[in-house]
Amino acid sequence: MSKVYGEMFMSDMKVRKWCRNFDAGRTDVHNASGQGRQPVSTDDLVQRVDQAIRGNRRFTISGLSDLSPEISRSVLYTIVSERLEYRKLCARWVPKMLSDHHKTQRMGAALTFLQRYHHDGDEFLDKIVTGDETWVHYETEETKEQSKQWMHSHFPSRKPVKFKRTFSTKKCMATVFWDRKGVLLVEFMPRGTTITATSYSKTLQRLRREIQNKRRGMLSSGIVLHHDNARPHTTVATTILLQRFGWEVFDHPPYSPDLAPSDFHLFAHMKRWLGGQIFTTDNELQISVQNWLKTQAAASYDEGIGKLVPRSDKCMNRNGDYVEK
């Protein structure tokens, strides 16, 4: 019964107690006036429940009931959900347990971004060119949301199932640079190679040519490069090249994919699109990825860059902690 009705269902002990009362001749289910559990939650009781929850965030209504057996579960549930407004949330994976130093760095970067945006407005966003690397796989598993199916309510027992399977480990490393208007450069690393300062510098040189060809006047108006602090991005050789270009490099704090548009926006959408697809060759995979990137509406890229504003604001409000949405 508990499995069916959940935590609000009476315990076995209480059910037996009520059975004994009925056997003894009791005919009503209400407490006599002035006796038994109090239906009204007092401020003192609310405070006690709040303290118990703060001591153990993984509490259950049953656990609270054991601590306060004189209070009914329904009253406890009302206190938790309505008076205290607690909600039970699943834990989420984060890249790293942020230290105070990391949070300070994140707040500093977010504040600098917001100050610049409030001073220059959309003109600042127009100058941003962002990019990053990501693995794209021959086979990408569907998300749980993608695997949902419409089922008739008359057949609730016929639930769809998914079988665990082993996916191909073959993959390609994609490098994508983009701005508010769309994709500027897409490259794939040759199999067996890694990104170094030398290879990244060559990529930046090709990126500059693409900007010159695709965004007339953008180089002269100024480029704000937004990339993460991966080692090839921050070496002396890379820094000197960007200085020669005359590009401004916007500071990106470490362990902060939630503040990188490629991670929280573009690649997230691309991975969902890849879900359930199977590719057999590097060329097939790469062409499909390039075509998908080219067919995305300009509004989607504009949205991705624009999200930096509310995300930076949330980062400040959360004292440097991770931003989920």
From TrEMBL:
Name of this chain's protein: Histone-lysine N-methyltransferase SETMAR
The record ties this protein, via InterPro entries, to: RNaseH_sf, Transposase-MT_Hybrid, Transposase_1
The gene coding this protein? SETMAR_153
Keywords assigned: Methyltransferase, Transferase
Instruction: Tell me one GO biological process term.
Output: methylation
GO function terms (MF aspect)? methyltransferase activity; nucleic acid binding
